[in-house]
Specification:
The chain has helices at residues 51-59, 121-124, 137-144, 161-175, 186-189, 199-214, 230-236, 244-259, 272-276, 296-318, 340-352, 354-364, 369-375, 384-390, 414-418, 461-472, 496-499, 503-521, 564-576; strands at 4-7, 47-50, 114-118, 179-183, 218-224, 265-270, 323-335, 397-408, 431-433, 478-483, 526-532, 551-554, 559-562. The protein has 579 residues and is α/β, with parallel strands linked by helices. The chain has a single domain, classed as Glycosidases (TIM Barrel, Alpha-Beta Barrel), CATH 3.20.20. The strands form three sheets. An eight-stranded parallel barrel has the order 3-4-5-6-7-8-10-11, surrounded by eight helices. Strands 1-2 form a two-stranded antiparallel ribbon. A two-stranded antiparallel ribbon has the order 12-13. The relative contact order is 0.12. It binds 1-deoxynojirimycin (NOJ). 1-deoxynojirimycin is lined by residues 120, 123, 270-271, 400, 451, 482, 532, 539, 548. GO terms for molecular function: beta-glucosidase activity.
């Protein structure tokens, strides 16, 4: 691979340390050999590294899968498209009358409502070193940081989607799913995050998008789903630095320019609360930073808002008809008691979760009050020009709305928490629980223990949808851009027949979609849904142990199988969508 770059500062990794005192100076080119300094931190070096060097030095060997060229799709056997037997309550198999279960004639999904499935590059693609891809921070986190992925697994092969995307698209099309949301791997397109562009990656995504279109599946593209090019992290701290703004915007420019005539729906970043919460990254694997640990997520958030809004405005200037938004996440927040303190805690929770990104973009270009009074102690406030740039830069409220939580004030009280930066709940100063105030019943059935944040709480969805519409008033409506549940202990099931019947996930989709139908009938403009996920995949620090797929993937053979939930999901649209 011909790409090389200059790395400005070398870091200690778990296996190598390169210092200015290296006994083999030929390996570095020191900018100014006669420079003297008494501050070791000021010693920096320029070192030319190829993509291959980045892999070797920072990640080490990666594994590859036996299928390593693009697979042509095989016809989807009609036997695999027969709906499953009824669950503990009847569903609506196409063409079948179900006793005791009638269609609710006052519910309907409008004709324009889109429904699909979602995945993300690092979680599904595999082929991490193929065709010029540069490493991302997740290659380091999964390969080098002991225990960061609890199962010690990596995304090296994942679902081998990089080679099997045609089959994957054919399968969802055969189910009747009309939308596929995926993310681009930034470090495939720009192996160093900025600089030289990798044409092979562009050709790959050309074909992925064209394949969707040829199957009548609408492609939706997310630019950034957590796999930050490693080089940007090590050059300037990634999202911690404002230097990311031009780099992200340039990356967005490449994508918009290439695909804006084929892709209408774009998401700039996925769940910034979560990826900004990755900071501080584990020590000694990435470039060091002086920013205090608890402040790092907010520096990240600041630069996300600047990057997103710059990309939004650029995208609109390239093609004003595009729909561009970011995907946020959070959950419905229910006061645990009717005390004034819990009401205040609920507002803090909205402000520190959804509001962190939604208020600036949907309301006024700035942070919500509870968050603002915290971040203004260390962040340079947005200028008026920046506020203007940020305000209005989401076309839809694209929310990954999996669940709900009870919220309560900290035991010590909110004020005491705000005044004490070492309080465990500082700076947000609210508590979250899944238990009703009787401390006995949970809000609903629990998902897999590997996703303790997620319970089935679909009864709260109509209230949540109303809240989103009423609070942030999105121009083009609300979309649920991820929802789904990890079936408890699914990984322990060893035989196919038991794996593919997933009753909790099936009930979740059916009840969630019923809740959306209720909200629509009450006037909420819900415009689309994306089920997470197209199939089981690399669930980040949980590895492959936690399953969210509506398809099972045998990771040894890479064969895919539909689960019952896939049929439940599609069936709700077969029954309720206007033809
Ligand atoms: C949201 C994230 O976007 C996705 O990457 C993750 O796998 C799911 N939640 C499930 O945790």
């Amino acid at each position: 691979m011909a790409f090389t770059t200059v790395i400005a500062l070398l870091l200690a990794t778990s296996s190598i340390v390169v210092s200015q005192n290296s006994s083999s100076p030929s390996s570095t080119s020191v900018a100014n050999a006669s420079q003297t300094s008494s501050a070791p931190a000021s010693f920096v070096t320029n070192l030319e590294l190829s993509v291959e060097d980045l892999w070797d030095l920072y990640v080490g060997p990666v594994s590859t899968f036996s299928i390593n060229t693009t697979v042509q799709p095989t016809p989807i056997p009609s036997s695999s498209l027969i709906p499953p037997p009824s669950l503990y309550y009847p569903s609506f198999p196409t063409g079948q009358q179900v006793p005791l279960q009638s269609k609710n004639e006052s519910w309907r999904f409008p004709k324009t409502f889109w429904y699909g499935v979602a995945g993300a590059s690092y979680q599904i693609e595999g082929a991490v070193k193929a065709e010029g891809r540069g490493p991302s921070i997740w290659d380091v986190l999964s390969h080098r940081v002991p225990g960061y992925v609890i199962t010690n697994e990596t995304g090296d092969n994942a679902d081998n989607n990089y080679y099997m995307y045609k089959e994957d698209i054919a399968r969802i099309a055969a189910l009747g799913i009309k939308t596929y949301s995926f993310s681009l791997s930034w470090s495939r397109i720009l192996p160093f995050g900025s600089g030289p562009v990798n044409e092979q990656a562009l050709l790959h995504y050309d074909d992925l998008i064209d394949t969707c279109i040829s199957y009548g599946v609408t492609p939706m593209v997310t630019l950034y789903h957590w796999d930050l090019p490693l080089f940007l992290q090590n050059s300037y701290g990634g999202w911690l630095s404002e230097k990311i703004v031009p780099d992200f915007t340039e990356y967005a420019r490449i994508a918009f320019t290439r695909w804006s005539s084929k892709v209408h729906y774009w998401f700039t970043v996925n769940e910034p609360i979560v990826f900004c919460g990755f900071y501080p990254l584990p020590e000694n694997f990435f470039k060091k930073t002086d920013i205090p640990k608890k402040q790092q997520p907010y520096f990240c958030g600041h630069n996300v808002l600047l990057s997103h809004s710059a990309a939004y405005r650029l995208g609109k200037s390239i093609n004003s008809s595009l729909s561009i938004s970011f995907k946020t996440n959070g959950g419905y927040k229910i006061p645990r008691t009717d005390s004034a303190a819990d009401a205040q805690a609920v507002q803090r929770a909205w402000d520190f979760q959804e509001g962190w990104f939604a208020n600036p973009t949907f309301l006024n270009g700035d942070y919500p009050p509870n968050l603002k009074s915290h971040v203004e102690t260390f962040l340079t406030p947005f200028t008026d020009a920046q506020k203007e740039q940020i305000n209005g830069t989401c076309d839809i409220f694209a929310h990954d709305a999996y669940t709900s939580d009870f919220i309560e004030a900290p035991e010590s009280g909110i004020e005491a928490c705000i005044a004490n930066s070492s309080h465990t709940l500082f700076p947000s100063c609210y508590n979250t629980t899944k238990l009703y105030a009787n401390n006995y019943w949970a809000i609903g059935p629990a998902s897999d223990p590997g996703s303790p944040w997620l319970y089935k709480a679909t009864d709260w969805v109509p209230a949540f949808l109303h809240y989103m519409q009423d609070t942030w008033k999105p121009r083009d409506g609300v979309a649920i851009t991820e929802f789904g549940i990890s079936e408890p202990y699914e990984e322990l099931r060893t035989n196919l027949a038991s794996i593919v019947i997933d009753p909790l996930r099936s009930a979740y989709y059916r009840d969630y979609l019923s809740a959306i139908l209720i909200a629509i009938s009450e006037g909420v403009n819900v415009v689309g849904t994306l089920a997470w996920s197209i199939y089981d995949n690399m669930e980040w620090s949980q590895g492959y142990s936690v399953k969210f797929g509506i398809q099972y993937v045998n990771l040894t053979t890479q064969e895919r199988y539909f689960k019952a939930s896939a049929f439940e999901y599609v069936n709700m649209f077969n029954v309720y969508q206007e033809k």
